[in-house]
Design a protein that fits this description.
The protein is α+β, with helices and mostly antiparallel strands. 16% of the residues lie in helices and 35% in strands.
Length: 156
């Protein structure tokens, strides 16, 4: 069995703003996730700085990119990251209404139930793994695991 080509992130840009509910600084980074065949997805990661109670969101626009590709062939999948001092976790969430829910770049924004238990879930989590390992700017999101949040105070 052939080993799949490694997926790496290509950094495009970033921006800062302010969280509407608490006024803290928010950040968004974006780029693409590619293997040797080209771009597999475009990503947007948005979080509130030093605020683990605001789950960061990763939007993945999955599908063909490049010359001749059409937005209708791409799907938006969104995942929330729940930081925890015990190690964070990802969960697929409804993508409708997200900033990347734009018909100029994707054909549709998927609801959670359309992603889980489907082959797209495996692809989305594989892309998030590659993003987590190859996007250095996401270190700020990983650092949210160091900050205590109320959920960490409960016992399992």
């Amino acid at each position: 069995m052939a080993t799949p080509a490694p997926i790496t992130s290509q950094f495009w840009n970033e921006s800062t703003g302010h969280c509407d509910c608490c006024g803290r600084t928010s950040k968004t980074i974006w780029g693409d996730l590619s293997d040797k065949s080209g771009a597999l997805a475009v990503y947007f990661v948005q979080w509130t700085v030093s605020a683990p109670e605001h789950d960061p969101i990763i939007d993945l626009i999955i599908g063909p990119w490049g010359e001749g590709s059409e937005p209708a062939a791409r799907d938006l999948v969104s995942l929330a990251y729940r930081p925890s001092t015990r190690g964070g976790s990802f969960m697929v969430v409804d993508a409708g209404g997200r900033r990347a829910d734009d018909r100029k770049i994707c054909g549709r924004a998927l609801r959670r139930h359309e992603v889980i238990n489907a082959s797209l879930a495996e692809q989305a989590f594989s892309l998030v793994d590659a993003l987590w390992l190859t996007e250095p700017r996401i270190a700020e999101v990983r650092d949210l695991n160091r900050v205590s949040r109320a959920d960490d105070q409960s016992t399992d």
